[in-house]
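Bumping my old thread because nobody answered last time. Still need a sequence for this structure:
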């Protein structure tokens, strides 16, 4: 699976909803404007693998964002199940270790890319040090790069990172890792609870391979117009 997209970054809309009916409404509203959806813990826990099967039947690609973190045999089995569901992208924690990430890559198969989460953006340097029992001087950016290297060594397709880190990831890893960037906002839109947001065109210009669009589209007054604006920015490269 290529880490570069010749036609620009691929937009993925996050189905951050509590059930199938709400998910169906978003997919129906966006129609041909979005053909790639993220299914995360909330929707998967409520609706299970049927939601992925339904999206595939609708002709959509699925990004399964369940952030696997377990022993290698379990990572391999879960990734194999995701691959059999026809999932195109899935997430694992890089902190599961190189063997765990590699097991997921092997289990997922050639048609399903494994993206590694490095450090959760909700953790600051102090919390990270407390969790890992390390000195308080620990720098989050250094840990992100270190874990990205571990993911690349283990054969991951890419990593999840913010729009502010994507250029550094590309500098360090070039085409070895495909960056997926959440926290995308349209100019003039609300940032909600995201601290570090970027526009689609800025993320694409910095080297993002995939963009995750949540509330910028799904909570917009006009989701169709918001999605059209995403496509316009990605096509023109303009801000
Ligand atoms: O609505 P919003 O655009 O903030 O949603 C972003 C999506 O990306 C959510 O599904 C969120 O869980 C996910 N995400 C994130 N930041 C990360 C990793 C994932 O916002 N670091």
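Sorry it took so long. Here it is:
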């Amino acid at each position: 699976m290529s880490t570069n997209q010749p036609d620009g970054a691929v937009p993925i809309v996050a189905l951050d909803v509590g059930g199938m009916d709400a998910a169906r409404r978003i997919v129906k509203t966006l129609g041909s404007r979005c053909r790639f959806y993220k299914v995360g813990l909330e929707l998967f826990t409520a609706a299970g693998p049927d939601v992925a099967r339904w999206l595939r039947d609708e002709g959509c690609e699925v990004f399964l964002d369940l952030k696997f973190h377990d022993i290698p045999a379990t990572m391999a089995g879960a990734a194999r199940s995701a691959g059999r569901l026809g999932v195109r992208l899935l997430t694992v924690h890089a902190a599961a270790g190189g063997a765990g990430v590699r097991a997921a890559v092997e289990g997922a198969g050639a048609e399903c890319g494994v993206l590694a989460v490095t450090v959760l953006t909700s953790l600051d340097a102090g919390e990270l040090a407390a969790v890992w029992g390390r000195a308080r001087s620990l720098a989050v950016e250094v840990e992100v790069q270190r874990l990205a290297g571990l993911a690349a060594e283990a054969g991951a397709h890419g990593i999840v990172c913010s729009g502010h880190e994507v250029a550094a990831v590309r500098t360090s890893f070039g085409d070895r890792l495909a960056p997926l960037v959440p926290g995308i906002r349209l100019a003039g839109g609300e940032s909600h609870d995201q601290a570090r947001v970027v526009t689609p065109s800025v993320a694409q210009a910095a080297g993002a391979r995939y963009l995750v669009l949540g509330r910028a589209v799904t909570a917009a007054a006009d989701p169709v117009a918001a999605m059209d604006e995403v496509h316009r920015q990605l096509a023109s490269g303009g801000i």
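The chain is about 45% helix and 15% strand. Let me know if any region looks off to you.
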